[in-house]
Amino acid sequence: MASSPTDPYTQAGVDTAAGDLAVELMKSAVRRTHGPEVLGGVGGFAGLFDASALLGYTKPLLATSTDGVGTKVAIAQAIDKHDTIGQDLVGMVVDDIVVVGAKPLFMTDYIACGKVVPERIADIVRGIADGCAATGTALVGGETAEHPGLLGIDDYDVAGAATGIVESAGVLGAERVRDGDVVLALASSGPHSNGYSLVRHIVTGAGIGYGDHAAEFGRTWGEQLLEPTRLYTTPLLRLIEQLGDGIHSLSHVTGGGIAANLARVLPKGSWVDVDRSTWSPSPVFRVLADLGGLELERTEGTWNLGVGFFAVVASDVADAATAALRAEGIDTWQVGVVGTGARPAGDYEQGAKGVDGGAVRLIGAYREAGAN
Q1: Model confidence at 372, in pLDDT bands (50, 70, 90)?
Q2: What pLDDT score does 29 carry?
Q3: Is the CA virtual torsion 325, 327, 329, 334 positive or negative?
Q4: Is 162 helix (H, G, I), strand (E, B) or coil?
Q5: How far apart are CA 69 and CA 90, in angstroms?
Q6: How far is Cα 162 from Cα 111, in angstroms, rounded to an integer?
Q7: How many CA atoms lie less than 13 Å away from 324 in the CB half-sphere?
Q8: Taking each helix axis from N to C terminus, what angle separates 85-97 and 118-135, rounded to the nearest 10 degrees?
Q9: What digits encode the pLDDT tens for the residues 147-196?
Q10: Mean pLDDT value of segment 105-123
Q11: CB under 8 Å to 294, separation ≥6 — which residues?
Q12: C-alpha to C-alpha distance for 76 and 73, rounded to whole angstroms
């Protein structure tokens, strides 16, 4: 029943009618992600997913991941543009699942806001649904919670969780990695959804508004910084299907930066020197670093600097993997080789995120902007 002006819940700042309208506006986008295995439609207390397909696996393992978008949402709120944040959420959640070689099955989302603005919520969820459709993930449920007094009227945060499946014998990880394996870098679309507290600090310190025109990019600062996270799941699943045992481990370059995330998917005792000279960081990183008076090397633990994923592959499939990913529209190149012998002298990063894995350091100097 719609809220009336005398409804005490409405007087407390919660508009249930607006929430109902938001659901109506997002229904068609959510339904586009549903295949025959999704039961019950939109609006139930719980999403239902037919798991009978799992019977075809010898030893199926479920993979799960949860994440949010972080302070990137503040930029979306600043310029009132909310149709890309959902893709960022899918990238942060679903692309973590493919790291172990798992195919995503379904996802749920959670949006907390100060006030439900139906069109805004629908924009966010449409972005999530589009990302789910692109990664073959069913969006089976979600929740929008209004928190007046805790969040400002235009404030919101988003989070999500997803579940995938992988055959036990097909799990990717450090235990597959061997001496001489090639480390491939897969290009990012920008900062993705990491390091935005530093991004916002730099932009604010420079006196720049998100609605200001950025001559370097030909659009506003807000539009540039809201560039959606690239989605890697579908191309990587196709790569695994094509090259099978040649793909040994994958790393999603998110919080913690380049070296830390690669170290997590290497075996203890191994090491990699990542050669900076093999790529030139994307212009957005160079511009931000210049504005903040930072050397790019000082941001390697915060930003991806143009590398969104790593793939550690057998040396005899490296060229085929590179060609396959480039055919998918993802620029891919070799940045290093795994070593298991005596490690060179120098400072390496190891033990990131609680994983006592391999050791990684970045060497050399980044290629100049525009250089081949």
Answers
A1: low
A2: 61
A3: positive
A4: strand
A5: 9
A6: 15
A7: 20
A8: 30
A9: 988 989 999 999 999 999 999 999 999 999 999 999 999 999 999 999 99
A10: 92
A11: none
A12: 5
Assess whether pLDDT exceeds 90 at residue 269.
Answer: yes
What's the CA gap between 317 and 322, in Å, rounded?
A: 9
Residue in this structure with the two tokens 């990012």, named with its chain if needed: 188
User: Are the CB atoms for 158 and 116 separated by under 8 Å?
Assistant: no
DSSP-assigned states of every residue in 288-327? HHHHHT--GGGGTTT--TTEEEEEEE-GGGHHHHHHHHHH
Q: What is the DSSP letter of 100?
A: G
pTM: 0.90
- Planar angle of CA 156, 159, 161, nearest 5 degrees: 160
At residue 245, φ and ψ (nearest 5 deg) are -65, -10
Q: How far apart are alpha carbons 158 and 137 in whole angstroms?
A: 18
Residue 351: CB partners within 8 Å, gap ≥ 6?
A: 263, 357
Q: What is the pLDDT of residues 283-332, one digit of tens each?
A: 999 999 999 999 999 999 999 999 999 999 999 999 999 999 999 999 99
Which pair of tokens denotes residue 3? Answer: 């809220």
100 CB neighbour count, 10 Å cutoff: 18
**331 φ, ψ to 5°?**
-60, 130
Whole-number Å distance between alpha carbons of 313 and 316 = 8
The encoded tokens of residue 208 equal 């720049």
Q: What's the one-letter identity of residue 40?
A: G
291 contacts 202 by C-beta, under 8 angstroms: yes
CB-CB contact of 280 with 371 (8 Å): yes
CB 229 within 8 A of CB 139: no
Q: How much is the pLDDT for 51?
A: 87
Q: What is the tens place of the pLDDT at every residue in 335-357?
A: 999 999 989 999 999 877 777 89
